[in-house]
Amino acid sequence: MGDEELRSKPNRDAAIRLTMMPRDTNAHGTVFGGIILSYIDVAGSVGAGRHTKHDRFVTVAMKEVIFHEPVFMGDLVSFYADTLKVGRTSITIHVTVEAERFGSQGHKVKVTEAEVVYVAINQFREKVVIGKDQPPAD
Questions:
Q1: How far is it, in rounded angstroms, from Cα 5 to Cα 128?
Q2: Which of 10, 59, 74, 117 is 20 to 30 Å from 85 by CA-CA measure?
Q3: Strand order, beta sheet including 16-19
């Protein structure tokens, strides 16, 4: 996704959006990749919950993640979640990560993207049909 495409979707609803802080950075001044991966996981679960109204998911897989641009302290990072597939007990979410550069008045770059697969579970951590998380009646 080029800069033109990023500018053409200004009203997208991010699953999460946050500013990177000093605690998120490594010795080179860039944000740890693992920090971005953890937020991808959170954003994907938010997207899964929004799509299904189910509130308990576990992560089963995260497909290849390639970092195209670094993220710096102070960048405002947005994580967008789009549903790709809903199965009986699983859901696949595509998460796109964009960084708005600190002090750049809206200049955004695509950082990375990932497909994340989640499985719906109940309060007993048992796999359930999406939308059916209540225990059976006796």
A1: 38
A2: 10
A3: 16-19, 76-86, 90-100, 108-120, 57-62
